[in-house]
Amino acid sequence: MGTKVLTMLEPLWQGFPPVDPLAVSGSASCTLPPRYESVRSARKFTRDTLQGWELDELFDSVALVVSELVTNALRHAVLAAPEHADAPPPTRLHLMRWSQRLICAVRDPSDDSPVAGEADSAADSASESGRGLYLVDSFSDSWGWHPLSGVTHGKIVWAQFRLP
Prior knowledge:
Layout: H1 3-13, E1 26-32, H2 38-52, H3 59-78, E2 91-97, E3 101-108, H4 122-125, H5 132-139, E4 142-147, E5 155-162
Antiparallel strand pairs: 1-2, 2-3, 3-5, 4-5
Helix pairs in contact: 2-3, 3-5
């Protein structure tokens, strides 16, 4: 793996569970435009990438997590930011494969930490809003987030999956 690729992915490793960056056996990323239709594009990108890595059996869980992370980035960081109303910055999806794990990470321009929503009443229990991080926690082996380094604004929210 070239130095350029290592340099490009280095911010993603900060805050991740310890892994050897030289053991990356595959990585792919895509830029997602600031609109909700990008969630569908993220799922397609995930399906195509996992098929290329012969990890089709992980698609359902990984696609659900990717959908939640991208939706949260769009809803809370990109489309809701008034300072970016004219030209909101894109969201970026990264998929990285190691020999024993897969990490999906979504980069967005917000410095705010992700917060799981709460549903206290019976009316809230039927609502899907606010449940995304609970789904991420349930379907991945671990997840977390960290601010980007060397950049004015932004964060990476990631989820890790053990490979079969």
